[in-house]
Design goal:
heterodimer, A: about 350 residues, alpha/beta, CBS-domain, 2 domains, four-stranded antiparallel sheet, about 35% helix, B: about 210 residues, mainly alpha, MetI-like fold, MetI-like (chain B), transmembrane helix (chain B), ABC transporter permease (chain B), transport (chain B)
């Protein structure tokens, strides 16, 4: 657990970066710090591993005051991932990952063997290990950055907009990877971003900062979206915060029924029972005789279900099992009802 | 102006000795220059106020005429190889110091930050991150300093040293062009070979810069 207790940071030029911050970041959870630029979120992050020293107040990691520890040793147990990874251009990918194990006194052979394992963990091919960072794509470099941070099993990870410099598709992939890894590893993660969607996706709790280093609200994403503390938070979360809340819920408990035979449209399946497309029975409707279907699994979000139900010509979404075979359909009305219920629950839970 | 090939044939041993002596003087000076400029460059790089002073000093030393340097050193080290090497070393500093400082400046802040954030202490960061990444710029300086020193050794003929430079005085005094031509050709050859060797050395030392995408 990381505890901030009445932490204040004033820079020599007189600006207050962090103002009287008290915050607990739970063990094994992801705390996301969000806010516009200059709100003190990065400074907060950097005070955890003493890249920035607090002006007053105390910061404890695992109960120990960070300022009473040797900075270099502290940083070997608290790993820091920065934008564009900050990889060493003169070291191979494998040696980049092996950096901290080597600092900790592992033998080169053992450090490299561990690095090779981590390469696989973050989803990179083994032959990437012998390359130099400039020979990799931005997304691959970012994965190496994560692998390097995971080497020697640090209990705490600090991530400063680690996925800020990659395109949206790769960004989503990297977020998925991180969520998957976190499920296995349960690290205490502090994650800085200015992207609300990223915060909602990754955070177990989200801390919103306002310019001048004030913490405005810290809460789990659902609570934050359902009950923003004030107008600043509501504005920051954006007009679609109601929809964002739906991204946190899955389809699992939304009922489904058999696909209807009547009506103008029918769902065409292949031999393995996988939905192929919506077919129109109306001969005049030749232009749109076949419309695409995007089947959803129980693990998909209520938000994507809502989106699909709007796109679907019948207002029905096709539900499939893990293999992609049709299990039933759900109506737009059922999805709406559950969306409303999700909001009510989030408000009550808060 | 014709070349007396028989003179060259009769003097191959002398030419070899002079070439080796010439190269030794130049390389010793560059090596000393590197050893002196590395720590000075680190100081100039880390302590901003000293930077201008150190770079300015190396510039001022460079403007002293070479003959004057040797003359000034005579009371200290006399008519010896030491005088030659000290003189040459002083000249190498102007390029070596400047390039090493610029090399250290060129190391990306993000990379140094990453090293620090991973718990690498400053000295280790300097040796394992900053110097390797500064190497291409440092090596560019070493190449210039080497070629410059090889051409400057001849000046030390005035104090009885000077390697291949002795061939020039010999040729001029006797109005006999062959030694002069041989000296020029060998000096050029030395410079070209030394430069090529340094390019090869840099290639070996910086594997990450090959196969640039």
């Amino acid at each position: 657990m990381i505890q901030f207790d009445a932490v204040h940071k004033r820079f020599p030029n007189g600006t207050t970066a962090v103002h009287d911050l008290s915050l607990e970041m739970p063990e094994g959870g992801v705390t996301v710090l969000v806010g516009s630029s200059g709100c003190g979120k990065t400074t907060t992050l950097r005070m955890v591993n003493r890249m920035v020293e607090p002006t007053s107040g105390t910061i404890r990691v695992g109960g120990k005051d960070v300022t009473r520890q040797d900075a270099a040793e502290l940083r070997r147990s608290i790993r820091y991932v920065i934008q564009q990874a900050g990889l060493f251009p003169h070291r191979t990918v494998l040696d980049n990952i092996a950096t901290v194990p080597l600092l900790l006194g592992f033998s080169r052979r053992k450090a490299r063997a561990r690095a090779a394992e981590l390469l696989e963990t973050v989803g990179l091919a083994a032959d990437a290990g012998k390359r130099y960072p400039h020979q990799l794509s931005g997304g691959q470099q970012q994965r190496v950055g994560v692998a390097r941070a995971l080497a020697a099993d640090p209990p705490v990870l600090l991530m400063d907009e680690p996925f800020g410099a990659v395109d949206p598709v790769v960004r989503t992939q990297l977020q998925d990877e991180l969520l998957r890894l976190q499920k296995e590893l349960s690290k205490t993660i502090v994650f800085v971003t200015h992207d609300v969607d990223e915060a909602v996706r990754l955070g177990d709790q989200i801390a919103i900062f306002r310019t001048g280093g004030h913490l405005v609200q810290c809460a789990p994403p659902a609570e934050l979206l359902a009950r923003p503390a004030d107008d600043f938070v509501a504005d920051f979360l954006g007009a679609e915060r109601g929809l964002k809340l739906l991204s946190l819920r899955t389809l699992a408990d939304v009922p489904q029924g058999p696909a209807p035979e009547a009506g103008n449209w029918s769902l065409v399946l292949d031999a393995a029972n996988k939905p192929l497309y919506w077919a129109s029975k109306d001969a005049k409707d030749t232009k749109a005789a076949e419309l695409p279907v995007r089947p959803l699994k129980d693990t998909d979000s209520l938000l994507s279900a809502l989106n699909e139900s709007i796109a679907s010509p019948t207002g029905l979404i096709a539900r499939v099992d893990a293999e992609g075979a049709l299990t039933g359909v759900t109506s737009r009305d059922d999805i709406h009802a559950h969306a409303g219920q999700a909001h009510t629950e989030a408000r009550v839970a808060a | 102006m014709t070349i007396d090939w028989s003179w060259i044939g009769d003097h191959t041993d002398d030419l070899t000795t002079l070439t080796i002596s010439h190269l030794q003087a130049a390389l010793t000076a560059v090596l000393l220059g590197v050893l002196i400029s590395l720590p000075l460059a680190v100081i100039a790089h880390r302590i901003r106020p000293l930077r201008g002073f150190l770079l300015g000093l190396s510039n001022v030393l460079f403007t002293i005429p070479s003959i004057a340097i040797f003359v000034l050193l005579l009371p200290v080290s006399g008519l010896t190889r030491t005088t030659t090497v000290i003189g040459l070393t002083v000249y190498t500093l102007v390029v070596l110091l400047r390039n090493t400082v610029e090399g250290l400046d060129s190391v990306p802040v993000k990379v140094k930050e990453a090293a620090k954030a991973m718990g690498t202490r400053p000295l280790r960061t300097l040796l394992t991150v900053e110097f390797p990444l500064a190497l291409p710029v440092i090596m560019a300086g070493v190449r210039i300093a080497t070629v410059m020193s090889i051409s400057l050794v001849s000046v030390a003929t005035y104090i009885g040293d000077g390697g291949l430079g002795q061939l020039f005085t010999d040729g001029f005094q006797r109005n006999f062009p062959t030694p002069v031509i041989a000296g020029v050709v060998l000096t050029l050859l030395l410079a070209v070979v030394a430069d090529a060797a340094l390019v090869a050395l840099q290639y070996v030392l910086t594997p990450w810069r090959r196969r640039r995408a």
